[in-house]
Amino acid sequence: MKHQILSAKFQSNSNYQISKFQTRCFLSLEIGIWNLFGTWNLELGIWNARHKSKPKITPFSLVIAMILMLLVGGCGTKKPPVPWETIVPRRIVDFKAIPREGRLLLEWTCPKENTDKSPLTDLEKFQILRSEGTLVGGECRGCGGEIAVTFEMEVGKENVPGKKISIFLEDQEAKKVYVYQVVSINRRGHHSAPSNPVTVYWEHPPQPPRTVRGEAGDKRVDLYWEPVEGAIGYNAYRRGEEEKKVFPLSPLNREPLTATQYSDLSVENEKKYIYSVRAVKRVVKTDVEGKGSPDTTLTPTDLIPPSAPLALVAVPLKNGIELNWRRNHEPDLLGYFVYRRRPGEREFKKLNETPLEKEVYLDTHVELEQDYEYVVTAVDSSVRKNESSFSEEVRVKYLY
Questions:
Q1: Which residue among 274, 298, 322 closes a domain?
Q2: Domain count of the chain?
Q3: Closest CA to 129 of 200, 182, 199
Q4: Residue pair 87/115 in contact by the 8 Å Cβ criterion
Q5: Do the beta carbons of residue 210 and residue 293 sit within 8 Å?
Q6: Considering the entire predicted model, what is its pTM?
Q7: CA–CA dist 238, 216 (Å, integer)
Q8: Cα separation, 153 vs 127, whole angstroms
Q9: What residue numbers bound the domain in which 236 lies?
Q10: Higher-confidence residue: 249 or 60?
Q11: CATH at 114
Q12: pLDDT digits (tens, 9 = 90+) for 103-159
């Protein structure tokens, strides 16, 4: 049976525009609308070929009818389901292999999504793949051969999507060339595509530097060591006393140091730091790093005192001699000391044992007709309590 939908009638002589539908879903729709709204006096209608009549429906009913027609569209053919084996973790593309302290550090980012861009929620483990060859005269013989799983790692709670993952491998042999890749595996056992490959040329790591010594200064530490035979450079490592007893994975320097000294200018005074230096040897295209030197502990110390106070003035008053001076602007300023000397005395004597917070002092232990000489110093808040040099002297006779 064929059914026709007519457009709204805006003029008495206008013709109906006909659209044809051949679906049983629409037949049910037409019968339902006829039964519900056939007796209402409305403006829009549906033509029924069997009864040759045109029932009226309201605009509100038309909206309902249109919604039902959209739902009827769901009767069409659906796309075939996507096979589970095609929904796998997205390929890792930032895989790295870095020699560290005689071992090989592997790093990559835990994937966030699957190949269909859906969130990765069923990641189970990673596998490290490796092929190897023999290093002969700077070239690899046998590379590109069989690839085997050399390490498998279960995914823990700490391996959240987007987080860096790091592991160490220690089974490398001298005069070997290794090609590493990593794959992700979901709980259904489906593998991602292998990551970007990384080639590592391996040889015996260099010896650690000996007799590393350091000098701690004001917000700086200077390290010195003896050269290591065969080394093309060095890496310097640092950790705080309160940190874990392992050094960070990356050295302080971005590129291997070519000199046998390093100045660390990113330290804080009065904080204890522990340092170690490692030699680096170039093997074809790989920089192999050796074991670290014995730990060296150093504590930077503030050695710079404040500047001497300026504009010292002494004024005799009824109850003593008042001293005033200009305030210092050092951020680590602790306070001031006042010194006094009588004519004929060689040394100034400190009048206050605790640093003054204000730029004023009243000396009440004075005698009439007596001359006095005064100086003021500034002291900082460092462990050393660095004290400035004397201010300019001021001499005054106590008369009131």
A1: 298
A2: 4
A3: 182
A4: yes
A5: yes
A6: 0.68
A7: 14
A8: 6
A9: 213-298
A10: 249
A11: 2.60.40.10
A12: 999 999 999 999 999 999 999 999 999 999 999 988 999 888 899 999 999 998 887
